[in-house]
Amino acid sequence: MRKSAFLIPVVVVAVAIALSALYIVDEREKALVLQFGRVVDIKEEPGLGVKIPLIQEVVRYDDRILSRDVEPLEVTPLDDRRLVVDAFARYRIADLNQFRQAVGTGGEGAAERRIDGILRNELREVLGSVSSNDILSSDRAALMLRIRNGAIAEARALGIEVVDVRLKRTDLPTENLDATFQRMRAEREREATDERARGNEAAQRVRAQADRTVVELTSDAERQAEIIRGEADARRNAIFADAFGADPEFFEFYRSLTAYDRALGATNSTMVMSPDSEFFNYLKSDQGARSLEGE
């Protein structure tokens, strides 16, 4: 009985020690086996591992691609137009042993602080070598590639592989927004004024051309009308001449009657003239007498 009571604690302790010698690494992790702070084993594949209980310890690190947002950073491009840049990086732990040596017991938190410093330096160096228009343009993939390549070289010493660097936001500082908007508004107003001036100039040219065309068309129409009118008058006179030439006596009669009609119209109520006036030549002629006798 006493022997059983003594064996049970021993078995429990032995099982506990045996279990503490085992550890499991899943597919999302990598692990280091440390003995008195020194790396004695690296476990990069998922599965079951063994360590010396109480002497060795297991430190786990994330094996996935991690993301790190950098605090908004103010940079000064070549044109001295300050910008606030917001960026983030994606990275993974590539060399576990080197990573442990670089960050020590600080782990991933210390690594992120080191990455922040690397990205800030690269952002200032790369974005400070170009103009603000290059940074604000949509085609800035080349800038992000330069930042990433520079960060890769520096992060390699930490055992970290930088996968990608992206600029999320590039804005003007708050205190510069109003001045910038005013300058942009003035530029747009100047461009609008230039466009209106060019439009008015073009409109004047169109109107002048239209007025010239109107004058030319009107002149040509009047010229053609005069030609047609002259030809019509000529044809009328020819017709009259042919008609009057066919019967000269009738022509004299018609011309005298026309003269009488015009002279004795409703507007002329009184006429004073000599009886031997040439006005009455047709009435005193033989043709006129016969005409009167016929009436």
Q: Top keywords for this entry?
A:
single chain; alpha+beta; 4-stranded antiparallel β-sheet; 3-stranded antiparallel β-sheet; 58% helix
Structural classification: alpha+beta
The helix content is: 55-70%
Count of structural domains: 4
Low-confidence stretches: none
Tally of individual helices: 9
Mean of residue pLDDT?
A: 79
Order of helices and strands: HEEEEEEEEHHHHEHHHH
Query: Which radius of gyration do the C-alpha atoms yield?
Result: 57 Å
Commentary on this structure:
This protein is an alpha+beta fold. It has four domains: 2-62, no CATH class; 66-172, Tetrahydropterin Synthase, Chain A; 180-244; 247-264 and 276-294, no CATH class. It is 58% helix and 20% strand. The protein contains nine helices and nine strands. The strands form three sheets. Strands 6, 7, 8 and 9 form a four-stranded antiparallel β-sheet that branches. A hairpin with a 7-residue loop joins β7 and β8 (83-93). α3 packs across α5 and α6 (174-246) packs across α7. It starts with a helix and ends with a helix. The model has no long low-confidence stretch (mean pLDDT 79).
What's the topology here?
Blueprint: H1 2-20, E1 22-25, E2 29-35, E3 38-43, E4 47-50, E5 56-62, E6 66-69, E7 73-75, E8 83-93, H2 96-103, H3 107-127, H4 132-136, H5 141-155, E9 160-171, H6 174-246, H7 248-263, H8 281-284, H9 286-294
Antiparallel strand pairs: 1-4, 2-3, 2-5, 6-8, 7-8, 8-9
Helix pairs in contact: 2-3, 3-5, 6-7
